[in-house]
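A quick aside before the break. I want you to see a complete sequence-to-structure record at least once, exactly as it would be stored in a machine-readable document. Don't worry about memorizing anything.
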Amino acid sequence: MARITLAEIADKLGAELRGDGSVEIQSIAGMEKAAEGQITFLSASKYRKHLAECQASAVMLKEADLPFFDGNALVLKDPYLGYALLAQLLDTTPKSASNIAPSAYIADDAIIGEGAAIGHNAVIESGAQIGANVQIGAGSFIGQHAVIGAGSKIWANVSIYHKVTLGNDCLVQSGAVIGSDGFGYANDRGKWVKIPQLGSVHVGNNVEIGACTTIDRGAIDDTVIADGVIIDNHCQIAHNVSIGENTAIAGATTMAGSLKIGKHCFIGGATVINGHMEITDGVTITGMGMVMRPISEPGVYSSGIPLQTNREWRKTAARVMKIEEMNKRLKSVEKKLNESN
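That is the input. The structure line, written in tokens, reads:
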């Protein structure tokens, strides 16, 4: 198990050290369970009450919380960010592949970069380009003329279709499908006629794609995922969607085709977004939002009815069903009042 001193951590995180810098840290833990040899963090002052009983060898916290703790501390403006950076330093996640497995199939004309690793039973098809130090997990499929940028990590059983481009330093979790056909059909007197999806998917650099997420290829132009986007598990991104830089999308979100989402947006889990419209930069949509119209102003948007007891919900639902009737009665009352005046 890796060990690192508090002084070394402070140097790497740019933190102010208070206490014994020679103390060795081997892992991170939550504040209530942390023990000797571990470090924890306090990112919200409402949890100060746990500091007095904390058994960790050190705590990452803000300067305002320092008077409430008399042990070893690393003072940061953002302890949660410090936790994220330290977790990267102490990360023990294994590679998705090491070396090139004998059972992997690699087409003769595929280009494999220096240091790339390809797992058991993976398939690299004709014309594919695999960048330097790429990891491709067991059972994954890389289609014809697909391009995987340097340093990207692909876990097991990922399917990346033909002509898809994936940027540098991306992370794709197991079961993801990138470049499958968009849902495009014409109707000929009741019979569905498939429209071949001739575009592709272009994924930028430093993008993360969650497990079992599907990103469809474009009908004519490409589906585009910009740099720094993070996408959670079980999301559906339809053909010709465009997602701006550093937008975050939580699990089970569904996006219809030809949707454009701006930069630095936050999309809550299980949100459903209509297609053929635009959402501007800096928009937050809370969980289970149903977005049916364009959003042109930054801000926080919500829809739906928050959780209630079943009894309360039944009353609310009954009243909602009578809204039209209530509206007519209200207009009738208003008309009578206006006539009497």
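Two observations worth writing down. The longest strand covers residues 38-41. Residues 324 and 330 are 10 Å apart (CA to CA). We'll return to this after the break.
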